Amino acid sequence: MRLSLAILSFLAVCSHAIPFNIQTRDVPADELTQFDFWVEYAAASYCHDNYVAKTGHKLTCWANNCPQVEQADTEILFGFSNTTITDTSGFVALDKTNKAIVIAFRGSYSVRNWIADATFVYTDPGLCDGCFAELGFWSSWILVRDSIVEVVSQHPDYELVVVGHSLGAAVATLAAADIRGKGIPAKLYAYASPRVANPALARHITAQSGNYRFTHIDDPVPKLPLLAMGYVHVSPEYYITSGNNATVHTGDIEVLEGEVNFQGNTGTGPPSLTAFTAHNWYFGKTDGCKGPGLPL
């Protein structure tokens, strides 16, 4: 049944793949400023002191890769890690300077994270008719959903922003879609996200406002799970063309439409283990706070 579903989804992908409405405009400077700011929250989610923090903790990054967040008036409302089978980790923070409540999901670090990354089978998240999500990513969200939604609902006057890098971006994408379905507006900043959805779910999330999904040159992670497995991306793609360890300028980002678009990251070839430096650099060393080793 799963194989048949994957085949049908792949055929659906092919039927929607061409043509594309491809935008190659420069992003406005004010948008670039926002992209560069919110990625620092994704970076902060890798820092141990933030995702194990008690209420009231001010966000810090020992790797010095979230200076703008450190300058803001912030406090942790809820930190989470090592409490679920998927080891979903991150925090909910209140940013009084920017009047935002931020849900940030950490990327892959533990063995349980990598298992969630590599599940690659469908589950029905109940978000829309015919919609299927990757099981590991969806499970990572629902295991912490109730606690997070409860905290978020206590601050209706603040803009809700959901961020993440890598695995964290995948969880953030599904979390934002689910939260919006509950009538709560949310902006999504997903950096280096793998594919999370079949075409129906991808179109459902794309139709929701406030999606910013970033890829970087030949980063292998956004190329997974494979198209042949029936997974596609949320549109649009903000494709960063500047090199590793380079400052991103407005002309270095191409805005590309479509569930599958070979003008961006997907068109740079199959996933390569030698391209992981592109995965680590999104406006800065995004996972600079990640701890050593591979804990359970």
Strand/helix succession:
HHHHEEEHEEHEHEHEEEH
The portion of residues assigned to helices is: 25-40%
Q: Quick one: CATH superfamily?
A: Alpha/Beta hydrolase fold, catalytic domain
Q: Give me the side-by-side strand order of the main sheet.
A: 1-2-3-6-7-8-9-10
CATH class categorisation? Alpha Beta
**Beta strand %:** 15-25%
Tell me the CATH architecture.
3-Layer(aba) Sandwich
- DSSP, total strands: 10
Helix and strand composition category: alpha/beta
What count of domains describes the coordinates? Answer: 1
Distance between the termini: 32 Å
Largest sheet: 8 strands, mixed
Shape, per Cα inertia axes: globular
Radius of gyration: 18 Å
CATH topology: Rossmann fold
The poorly predicted ranges are 1-23, 110-115
Question: How large is the count of helical segments?
Answer: 9
Mean pLDDT reading: 88
